[in-house]
From TrEMBL:
A matching Pfam family: Cys_Met_Meta_PP
Keyword Ubl conjugation annotated: no
E.C. code: 2.5.1.48
Residue positions, PTM N6-(pyridoxal phosphate)lysine: K200
Top-tier EC class: transferase
GO BP of this protein: cysteine biosynthetic process via cystathionine; transsulfuration
InterPro entries found in the cross-reference section: Cys/Met-Metab_PyrdxlP-dep_enz, Cys_met_metab_PP, PyrdxlP-dep_Trfase, PyrdxlP-dep_Trfase_major, PyrdxlP-dep_Trfase_small
Biological classification of the source: Bacteria, Bacillati, Actinomycetota, Actinomycetes, Streptosporangiales
Protein's UniProt name: Cystathionine gamma-synthase
Cofactor: pyridoxal 5'-phosphate
Family named by the database record: Belongs to the trans-sulfuration enzymes family.
């Protein structure tokens, strides 16, 4: 029987009942190696778990199905996925375009690691396709997109940027961590590669670090698999299993994340202590129209700027009780953080520096009245 509904794929893709035991849940194949029936006689194609492991295969097939790609690859972290991708597609002399408010770790990888190996880059406002067109050079190999961005929640038009990239013979890479494949499917809009920190919404429970790549082209998938095996930053079997378990409930979790975020936004907009709320669901957000076209809903991430500047932002972060002060995002529990001093500290002094009055929320799936009341008491001066 074939199926294609998102939730059905999340629960079943790559996850047939175990052929020998009938186990409904894919087992944790906690093994590094596999017995061979005579030299080269592999059962099921597995020989060594850096190259492939059945629990990881299940996750990789599920990720490919959810993103509508031909191949998924699972890594030890989002950064490991990014590193493997960049080493596969870029070489000395090449050029990258990255968002001018990229995730701090991506900015650090490009500016502090790849630049040393002769890869140049420009940070561009990706919500402005003309600026991207102008920044393209003959040696540009990829446009790296985040939408919504971390932490400013800017929106980029994936289809428009795919056209610009392809006209220049470059790849369009989309970090889909904030939206998750439930809210946005970049490959269907023309992107070539989707990147994930599966640590976030895909895992969904703040208990595992992981990363993924999904591609639309089988040949690129082969090259990535070669580099994945060569560099070896793979997801371990237990991490793959935890991520698969999280994915099964992605759809219902995302619905609640989005609904709760909308209520939180309502409470923040117009609040006397809040200068500005950044959320693509707001009709006056500059990317609202594009977000309506390319996203199912607007996500669980909300950022806001405090009228009282950095001091007020730090005070709110210190005062919440249901929102936990912590880095990361996308788990069932609500988190609050100060990007300037926490997740984006590595951008200090650079053109990607984030405003010091900014607070970022990862709105969880708790009872929404508790979340709103917690924020309102923390906002009191
Ligand atoms: C948008 C985005 N991309 C990539 C990463 C890196 O992922 P990881 O922390 O799993 O290495 C993060 C982590 O916060 C992120 O927010």
């Amino acid at each position: 029987m074939s199926y294609e509904g998102f939730e059905t794929l999340a629960i079943h893709a790559g996850q047939e009942a175990d052929a020998e035991t009938g186990a409904v849940v894919v087992p944790i194949y906690q093994t590094s190696t596999y017995r061979q029936d005579g030299v080269g006689g592999l059962r099921g194609g597995y020989e060594y778990s850096r190259t492939a492991n059945p629990t990881r295969t299940a996750l990789e097939e599920c990720l490919a199905a959810l993103e509508g790609g031909v191949r998924g690859l699972a890594f030890a972290s989002g950064m490991a996925a990014e590193d493997t991708l960049l080493r596969t597609i870029a070489r000395p002399g090449d050029h990258l375009i990255i968002p001018n408010d990229a995730y701090g770790g991506t900015f650090r990888l490009v500016s502090k690691v790849f630049e040393r190996w002769g890869v140049s880059w420009d940070a561009v406002d990706l919500s402005n396709p003309e600026a991207v067109r102008t920044a393209i050079r003959p040696e540009t190999v990829a446009i790296w997109v985040e939408t919504p961005t971390n932490p400013l929640l800017n929106i980029a038009d994936i289809a428009a940027l795919a056209d610009i990239a392809h006209a220049a013979d470059a790849l369009l890479v989309v970090d889909n961590t904030f939206a998750s494949p439930y809210l946005q499917r970049p490959l269907s809009l023309g992107a070539d590669v989707v990147v994930h920190s599966t640590t976030k919404y895909l895992g969904g429970h703040s208990d595992v670090v992981g990363g993924a790549l999904v591609v639309a082209d089988a040949e690129l998938g082969e090259r990535l698999a070669f580099h994945q095996n060569s560099m070896g930053a793979v997801a371990g079997p237990f991490d793959a299993w935890l991520t698969l378990r999280g994915i099964k409930t992605l759809g219902v979790r995302m619905d609640r994340h989005c609904a709760n975020a909308e209520r939180v936004v309502e409470a923040l907009v117009g609040h006397p202590e809040v200068a500005e709320v950044l959320y693509p669901g707001l009709p006056d957000h500059p990317g609202h129209k594009v977000a309506v076209d390319q996203m199912r809903a607007f996500g669980g991430m909300v950022s806001f700027r405090m009228r009282g500047g950095e001091e007020a932002a730090l005070r709110v972060c210190a005062k919440t009780k249901v929102f936990t002060l912590a880095e990361s995002l996308g788990g069932v529990e609500s988190l609050i953080e100060h990007p300037g001093k926490m997740t984006h500290a590595s951008t200090a002094g650079s053109l990607l520096e984030v405003p010091s009055d900014l607070v970022r929320l990862s709105v969880g799936i708790e009872t929404v009245d508790d979340l709103v009341n917690d924020l309102l008491q923390a906002l009191e001066p």
